[in-house]
Amino acid sequence: MRFLIVDDERTVHEQLTALIPWEQLGWQIVGHAYDGEDARRLAEQLMPNIIVTDIRMPMMDGLGLLEWLQESNHPAKVIVLSGYGDFDYTRTAFKRDAYDYLLKPIKEAELLTVLGRAVDELRQEHQSQSDRINEKAVLNQGLVLMHDELFMQAAVTGQLDENELYVRAEQLMIALPDGRYTTIVVKILEADEQIQQRYGGDRNTFLFAARNMIQETVGKQTLVFRNLQKAAEFVILLSHQARPIEWLASDLDKLRSSAERYLRVRLKIGASAPKQRISKLAAAYAEAVQALESLRLGGEETVAIYGQATSAAANHVKPIESWQEVNMLLDMFLGTGALREEGLLLDKLNEAFSSAMLAKMSATEWKKAASELLAKLEFAGGHDETALQQLNEARTCIQEVRTEQARQAIRTLLQDRLIKASSATRMKNGRQLMEVVKQYIDLNYRDVTLDDIAQKFYMNKNYFCSLFKSTIGESFVEYLTAMRMEHSKRLLEQSELKTYEIADYVGYSDQRYFSQVFRKHTGMKPTEYRQFARHQAE
Question: What stretches pass through the bilayer (predicted)?
């Protein structure tokens, strides 16, 4: 409890300081003033809870100080001390909201009783106010949750038709857009890191701050919801009656800069095409999500509007290589039970999830690649309860595009499976390994080489050639040639491509050599085979 002592006599200050055991009571004298003007300045600066003041002082007397406190709505309780027993002073002081009036000389017991009573009343008032604030906060929190749940039913799950939505919205005092509106999805990136670093792990406080920031940016009358199925996603219904559609780009950029300034987080934002009817809310939400997920994960662009191509899409480069290697190693592991160098799979996983690789992928592409990887692990079976929990966690992280958490969950699944793999069975089944290699050759027959196989499957070339022939029944070159010839025959039968074009397509840069190999394989030149095949088809 904070006290300000006001008297023009220094001895009174010393007496009051000595009379009361301030520290033992948990009270504190925060300031001493020697006239009314000084008291007013300190009251504004220090915001004391209780002011003990004399009546007669230079500059401004005690009654003047009381009048100023009354006019400025200062919350402090004032106890007046005076050597005058004049009833007029007493009456005036109480008219100006004095808490109590004591005569000098000050009696210790009387002063302590009055101060104690004032402190108790202040604490009760504070508690009552705190209770009212808490009660209002709980009610408001419940109303906000009901608003969010209504949005979920209308836009995400599509459980409400237009009439039901209007009725429910009216019951919850939600003013739905009247006329054209745009649905905007706002995804907060690195939310988990910020929650830990700046909010001490308190997710609710962070989300409250994020909602307030968005609401302040777009305006109090604009509807803002939180998607309760996502970790950090908010949805805005921007009415174009209040905000013309021409302002949309600047509004979204303002939202991005506000998040960086006040929350220190980055955003990805997707906006739908304008809609006229609220019945199109679910479609608008889907468009906004699609626009958002078209942005590259690590790209500089943060805003995408449905139907408008981004530069990210125009300059897109697919990071296929790393994901193919992860899938190939995983296929080898799941097919044979183990790997020669288990760390390679985990290293390639980290590479596929690296910032450099994510920067080249849109959220849609990343979700597809990560989901395919997870599906292979899930389909392999043999999961205990812990692994099933990890699978669910990874699936949720992929849907919410939480890349680092998804990587950790998938890595944990892989590590557990690698540990459980028996060392006695590692790579003992050559046929299973060669089946995986065959799948790779089938996918890459146009340009695959022996060096590629040796590098990707981490095998000596001579060992691979020997193992391939003993398990498949023909050499690598024979198998590859047969694969290319089968594709060549299909193209001759079903297309109008010229011979040199087909040769190049299946992996031969020299048309003459291609024709020699084709004739050796089929007994006919490519042109002869095309005529023969079409005659047979007739």
Answer: none
